[in-house]
Amino acid sequence: MEKAATTVFSLALVFMKFLIALGGGAANNTSSDESALLAFKSHITYDPNHILTTNWSTNTSFCHWLGVSCRRRGQNRVTSLNLSNMGLRGTIPPQIGNLSFLTYFNISYNHFNGHLPAELGQLHRLKVYH
C-alpha cells in the first residue's frame, strides 16, 4: 500500500511540473514577443509622429499597440506587424526573429538601414514581407 501511495504521489508531482512548465512556457513566449517588440522600438532612432514612443508602452498589452496584431485564440502572440508609412528611421534588431507566429511584416515607406538580420529566416510562418 505504501509503495502505491508513493507512486501516485510521484506521478502527481510529475504532472504538476508538466502543468507548471506549460504555463511558464506560455508566459515566456508572450513575454518574448513583447521583448522583441521593445527591442524593435529601441532600434528606432527617429519617430517623427511619436507613434512608438507614446503608444508602445508596457502599461498596455502589446496586442493593443499601434501596428501590432495578435491572434485571437489561446495565448496572445504577434501575427502581424504593420508599420508602413510612418517615417521611422533605424535598424531591424535580431530579436525580430523571436516573433515566431509572425505572418505579416510591413515596414515599407520608412528609412531603415543596415543589414536584415539572419533571424528573419527563423520566421517560418512569415508570408508577407515589405
Automatic annotation (TrEMBL):
Q: Which domain of life is it from?
A: Eukaryota
The organism of origin for this protein: Vaccinium darrowii
- The name on file for this protein is Uncharacterized protein
Taxonomy of origin reads:
Eukaryota, Viridiplantae, Streptophyta, Embryophyta, Tracheophyta
